[in-house]
Fold this protein.
Amino acid sequence: MSLESSKILGETLHGAGNALDGYFSIKVGADTFGLPVTQVQAIFRIGAVTSAPGGPPDIVGLVNLRGKIVTAVSLRRRLGLGPEPGGKPEGAGSMAIGVEHRNEAFALLVDEVGDVLTLTAETAIAPPPHIGRRRAKFASGYNRIGGQILPLLNIDAVFDFAEDR
Amino acid sequence: MDEMLKEFLAESAEQIEAASAQIVEFERNPADAALIASIFRLVHTIKGTCGFLGLNRLQKLTHAAESLIGQLREGAKATPDVVSAILAAVDRVKRMLAELEEAGQEVAGDDSDLITRLEHYVALCQGAVPEETPVEQGPGAVADAHEPAAAEATQGKRAETIRINLNTLERIMQLVSELVLTRNQLIELARHKDDESLKSPLQRLSTMTSDLQDAVMRARMQPVERVFANLPRMIRDLANDLHKKINLITEGADTELDRQLIDLIRDPLTHLVRNCADHGIETPEERLRVGKPATGTVRVAAAHEAGQITIEISDDGRGLNLAKIKEKALARGLTTPQQLAQMSDEDVSRFIFAPGFSTADQVTNVSGRGVGMDVVRENIQAIGGSCALTSKPGQGSRFTLKIPLTLAIAPALIVEASGQRFALPQHSVVEAVGLNGGEHKIECVQGSKILQLRDEVLPIGSLAELLRLPVPAERAGAPEPLAVIMRVGAQSFGITVDAVIDVQEIVVKPLGGSISHLTTFSGHTILGDGSVVLILDPNGVCRSLGLEQSRESHAASVENLPTAPSDKTRLVHFRAGSGVDKVLPLSSIARIETVNAARIEYSSGMMLMRHQGRLMPIVAAAPDVTVREGDNTVFVISPHGEPFGLLVDSIVDIVEHRLDVEIGGEAPGVIGAADIGGKVVELVDIAYFIDLLQMPQERPRDRKSRLLLVDDAAFFRDMLSSTLQAAGFDVVKAGTAAQALGHVAQDPHFDAILIDVDLPDGSGFQLAARLREAGARAEMIALAPYATRDVSRNADAAGMAGAVGKFQRNQMLDLIRACIERGREGTPEESFRGVAA
């Protein structure tokens, strides 16, 4: 049958080691964000998506993740980026990060999940002043690591759709 | 055995059971005040009931024990001797209860030993007897000897009632819900298999699951008495406040209802009873004057009726004051005198359910603040119930609530619209009607769709349009073949869908916060095949059809337009077609554009123009308005941010005028005729044009790729098509080469074609060539159980794009996407077809 179940790629990912200050680098388009390891419940490829007609446009739909219904949100659309260069539609098969926010289970669709980075107080920097307001609200802080600027994803802003209604 | 005695035994056994841990703890920690109090209560309760039932022996013993525990409670020291005496007494009580159970009456016996011992310690605690006086008979000897027997006997009794933690019960319910889902999933799987050995255990599993579901449901049931219990007090207080005499009768308090529902009906029920007492029942003087007894009666009756609970709340008061309701309805602009004249009393009484409606002259703290009946009805409907009202002037009124037994699991129709499935709770579904037979037809009346069904005229809407679902290109314009007739409260209506797929028991799960504001949906669930579907909320659907609002929106227009002479509207007076001149409120027009004919493009019979960087559809304001050489006038109308153009012939004037609309426009797109300055004009209905454009408007953004799937095995057809649909494709299925050719002959525009190499009427490779001859230009993919080298070679030779195994889902999807990409690059006008259409 077409039990296109969502496939778990990783879960309870790392030992206690550096989990506390560990951050996933997640990529969408040309952007890379940091996301605390502790916030991530699972990384998986999503299966069939049921669209939610009338819902916020950034919500791709609903996904069955092992018997639990999760809300799939496109980070790409959330950030106002265009569709993927290849024109591949977001949906079944997309890479997703399982995040729980205000008692709602979300799947955040991203292009890629990269390495776990360790961030410290020393790597943190002040927000660059020229970031547009629309984009700035999705960053909760900035770090400089390996010569690159890494914004940290502001989960609260990503999953707050109050403005989109 | 006496019922009362049985109950006492069950209750006591339960209490002792519950207290046993405390008794054990008491032994270790005899100074704990809370423990002492708890054991005191236990013994006290048993003592009280024993006296009532005439169980003298038990009563004497418990009395003695109670006295001693009472001393501890007062602060006496709990010495080990005292503790063991109390424990011995508890054990003795247990044993006696067991004997009582067995014999059905109190067994004769002598407890004076223990009683003396207990009394001794009481005296000791009070300081009356010197400490050293020994009354001991070997500490706990008697009790110890009988202990085993007592324990066994109590065990024999336990099964009748137990207390369960609510969370445990909820957890069980949840698990059963999941079990139902899994069962459904298995049934779905088995449907595609011809395995007899599987069928019978599955059948058994299915029956057992249903039984289990039933049993658990019953465990959650509680008598409605819980809600009825606070009514007498409320009625008494109300009667005092209002200086009325009211008698409350409750019936069927033992009717059982899911505990979750009990909590949910509490407020609506209380409100209705309060309403009866406040609005319904007259003052004693008034009642006597009209020849009724001074005391009014409010009756609340619950009954179990065909899988539903019916609760009737009635009074023998004055009934609804229809005249007052009419007056209020008019004053609030809910209706017009003409409409009122045609309404039945029942229709009029229904106004009390309108938001904020109240006929009470004075605002009391009881009622009359106008928050109420609409909320009552909404709350009842929210749990899948209904609320009806009958009233006879001078004789009283009666509210009838119908409530489902449970909320957690509900049967639902699974319907499909635009390729997406939705669950429709069965409680609101009346019937499904096929529309293809020609017997029932959907007609358009003044821009609204209606269905004539037998004697009824029902408002109807397309589910796909209502939800603004993208319509697959090949289906554009094709009417949906099925109408599902629903009823919400007194309102019947229909929605059209593509198919009713199944009836399933669904487990309702609440929507997540990010989409919980969507009123069209009440929740979501997982179907047997693992897919997620949204559950439609019949109330929300009804509302989004514009049914509930119809009266109020009319009210709004009544308020805005004809009432006062100062109420003038700025109108654009224009010509469109050969009929009379037309008007539109200026406020509804975003811009008026002069557009050269060259700027208007045509695509599949639709006019388009570029407007602010986007393609905007244009419709003619009347059927006989056409684009002329040179400049044309287009009104840009932007109802919800999605603008469209309305093509008109010419603007006559912009006037400020009172608009008196006589309802009765015959032509589609016209609300009605009006008189401005002695000239008759028609008011144009924008909603009609929005309706007209809705489907094509949605299409360009979401065109799906369209695939043709040819496979003779139903199993693979179903499996693959659902896989492909899940991946975002539209799939047309064919079981034979002939069917495939038929599909291509009908419409050759596929984005990719998947062909099983083994078909009953010829090989798939041959079919590929024949399809191409028939006009199919899409890339083709060979399907085989396994993509062996032979298959790939043959596919190559047949000019197909590739071959793939039927179970290699990911490779298949990749190959299809690659084919579609190539197809788009190769024939740009081809892939644009769907966008422009």
